[in-house]
Specification:
Number of helices: 10
Length: about 270
C-alpha cells in the first residue's frame, strides 16, 4: 500500500478548497428553486404586487408624501427588500429541513466538503433566489412606478447583504428545526414580525421615542432603509451605519452556521 499523503484515507486531495464540490452544491440549490419558478419567483412578485395595490387603493389617495416622496413609491423599496428577506430565508431553511425530514441530509454531509464550503454552497442558492426576485420586482418598480435608482450600487449592496444575512439565518433555522411545525413557528413569530416592524410601510420618525429606539435594534430595519436610500435617495438612518450593522450581523450568522456544520449540530446522530 502506498504511503504517499495524497493516497491516504481521509486526506483531502482538492487543495485548500473543494471548488468542484462547493460549486456543485450551489448549482443544486439554484436548480432546486428554478425548477419551481412559478412558486419561487412569480409567487413573490404577485404577493408584492397585491400588497402594493391594496395599500395604494386603501391609503395612497389620502396619504400625503412620506420623506418627500409619494407614499406608494416610499413603500415599494421596503416591499422589495421584505420579499428578498423572506425568499432568501425560505430557500436555505427549506432545503436543509426537507433533507433532514426525508433522511437524505447524509448525501450532503458525506462528500468531502468543509463547513465553510457547505455554508457557501447553501448561501449561493439563497442569494441567487433573493437576487432574482429583487431584479424582477426592481424592474417592475422602475417601469410601472417610475421610482428610478438614486444610488444603484448602494441598492445592490443592501440586496446582497440582505440575501446573505437571511440565507445564513435560514441555514441556522434549517439546522435547528427538526420538523416543519418548528420552522413555521420561527417564520411566524420571528421572521414575519421583524419584517413588518422594520419600516416597510412607515417612517420610524412617526413612532414614539421608545419604539424608534427599538426599531434601531432590528437589523431588518437597516436592510429596508438601505434599499430605500438606494432607490429614492432618502433614509431614516445613515446608510454607512446600516452597512456596518448588516455586515456585522451577517458575519456573526455565517460564523455560527459554519460552527454548526463543523460540529454536526442537530445533523448527525
Amino acid at each position: 500500500m502506498s504511503d504517499r499523503p495524497d493516497t491516504q484515507m481521509g486526506v483531502r486531495r482538492f487543495g485548500r478548497w473543494n471548488w468542484l464540490g462547493m460549486i456543485t452544491l450551489a448549482e443544486r440549490e439554484c436548480r432546486r428553486f428554478l425548477g419551481i419558478w412559478a412558486q419561487t419567483v412569480m409567487g413573490p412578485l404577485i404577493n408584492a404586487g397585491l400588497f402594493l395595490a391594496v395599500f395604494a387603493i386603501a391609503i395612497g389617495p389620502t396619504r400625503g408624501d412620506v420623506m418627500g416622496v409619494p407614499y406608494v413609491q416610499f413603500m415599494a423599496p421596503g416591499l422589495l427588500m421584505m420579499t428578498v428577506i423572506q425568499n432568501s430565508f425560505a430557500n436555505t431553511s427549506s432545503s436543509l429541513l426537507a433533507a433532514k425530514v426525508q433522511g437524505n441530509i447524509v448525501d450532503t454531509l458525506m462528500p468531502p466538503l468543509s463547513a465553510i464550503e457547505m455554508t457557501v454552497g447553501y448561501l449561493a442558492g439563497g442569494v441567487a433566489r433573493g437576487g432574482l426576485v429583487a431584479v424582477v420586482i426592481g424592474v417592475v418598480m422602475v417601469l410601472v412606478l417610475g421610482t428610478g435608482m438614486a444610488h444603484p450600487l448602494v441598492f445592490l449592496l443592501f440586496v446582497l447583504l440582505g440575501a446573505l444575512m437571511m440565507g445564513a439565518l435560514g441555514v441556522l433555522a434549517g439546522i435547528y428545526a427538526s420538523k416543519f411545525d418548528q420552522m413555521s413557528a420561527i417564520t411566524n413569530f420571528i421572521i414575519t414580525p421583524l419584517s413588518f416592524l422594520s419600516g416597510t410601510f412607515y417612517s420610524i420618525d412617526a413612532l414614539p421615542p421608545a419604539l424608534t429606539a427599538a426599531s434601531h435594534l432590528n437589523p431588518f430595519f437597516y436592510l429596508i432603509d438601505g434599499a430605500r436610500y438606494g432607490t429614492l435617495g432618502v433614509s431614516d438612518a445613515p446608510p454607512l451605519l446600516g452597512v456596518v450593522v448588516c455586515l456585522g450581523v451577517t458575519a456573526a450568522l455565517v460564523a455560527l452556521a459554519c460552527s454548526w456544520f463543523r460540529r454536526g449540530y442537530r445533523l448527525k446522530a
